Amino acid sequence: MITTFTKTETISSSIDKASRILSHTSSTARLDSDILLSFILKKERSWLITHRDCLLNAAETEAYKKVILKRKAHEPIAYITNKKEFMGLDFYVDRSVLIPRPETEILVEKAIDIIKSGDIQSVLEIGTGSGIISCSAAYYSSQKLSIEALDISGSALAVAKRNAFRLGLTKKIKFFEINIFDFEPKKKYDLILINPPYVKDSEIIDELSYEPFKALSGGKSGLNFITLLLPKLSLLTDNICLMEIGKGQDEYLKRNQFFETEFIEDLAGINRVALLRKLTE
């Protein structure tokens, strides 16, 4: 049976129908339906619960139908709503940047701990994307920091700058459009932060296929970019790097010749963040 929307839908019936449409696409069909109707109506989800019998007008019904069909096609909700929460902050996102993920909060939390407990004055982020890492670190660190954030994509940097502006961080973070392998600073950094492309190309499917390929792709093994980056990192710091990694990539990093390695697990018990400490000569 095909589920269709009529011209006289209530909030309750609209969500029910949307949930059925999304049931074969999303494991959180009901939640997705709630979030997207909240987005269309510009209301909190709690408001939907107390106004279940309210009728949607024709424009609202049509707009809701469009976003539900986008979600049915696996488009991530964050791209539909241009919004994603990260570290308790709301960030603007679009398809020029990766969608923030909970695993990356592990890296940011460790970075904040290092900044607060050590003599960290200069921070470099490589591949800033939407700016969530630099912005969160700057927002939650009271120390006077010099943060420089690099990305090869001008459209990604536009998103990062927008987020920095919204959070009042434009004086704390400097953004640069440059390929990291062309980057030749005159100083070394106390702390480097990286969420590199580490996903195997074969795994970039469904929702991931909507995200910028270059920001995800680590090649066949997932290690292409990381392999090239390690020697460059050794020239940029004499101290610490924090790098988000994929499952099993810790074994590769343990064999590197530039850094001592420690790892931080995610909730699934996977070594998700590598702490790389420069080897002394």
Question: Would you give an account of this structure?
Answer:
The chain is α/β, with parallel strands linked by helices. It has 11 helices and 9 strands. The strands form 2 sheets. The protein has a 7-stranded mixed beta sheet with strand order 5-4-3-6-7-9-8. Helix 8 links the parallel strand 4 and strand 5. Helix 1 runs parallel beside helix 4. The termini are far apart. The relative contact order is 0.10. The mean pLDDT is 95.
In short:
This protein is of the alpha/beta class.
Produce the secondary structure layout:
Blueprint: H1 11-22, H2 29-41, H3 45-50, H4 58-72, H5 77-81, E1 84-86, E2 89-91, H6 102-117, E3 122-126, H7 132-140, E4 146-151, H8 154-166, E5 173-177, E6 189-194, H9 213-216, H10 224-236, E7 237-244, H11 249-254, E8 259-265, E9 271-278
Parallel strand pairs: 3-4, 3-6, 4-5, 6-7
Antiparallel strand pairs: 1-2, 7-9, 8-9
Helix pairs in contact: 1-2, 1-4, 2-4, 6-7
> Unreliable segments (pLDDT under 50, ≥5 consecutive)?
none
Biggest sheet descriptor: 7 strands, mixed
Rg of Cα set: 21 Å
| Proportion in β-strands | 15-25%
Span between N and C termini?
Answer: 70 Å
Number of distinct helices: 11
Q: Supply the helix-strand structural class.
A: alpha/beta
Order of helices and strands: HHHHHEEHEHEHEEHHEHEE
Report the count of strand segments: 9
Average pLDDT figure: 95
Helix content bin: 25-40%
Shape: elongated
Give the spatial strand order of the biggest sheet: 5-4-3-6-7-9-8
Oligomer: single chain
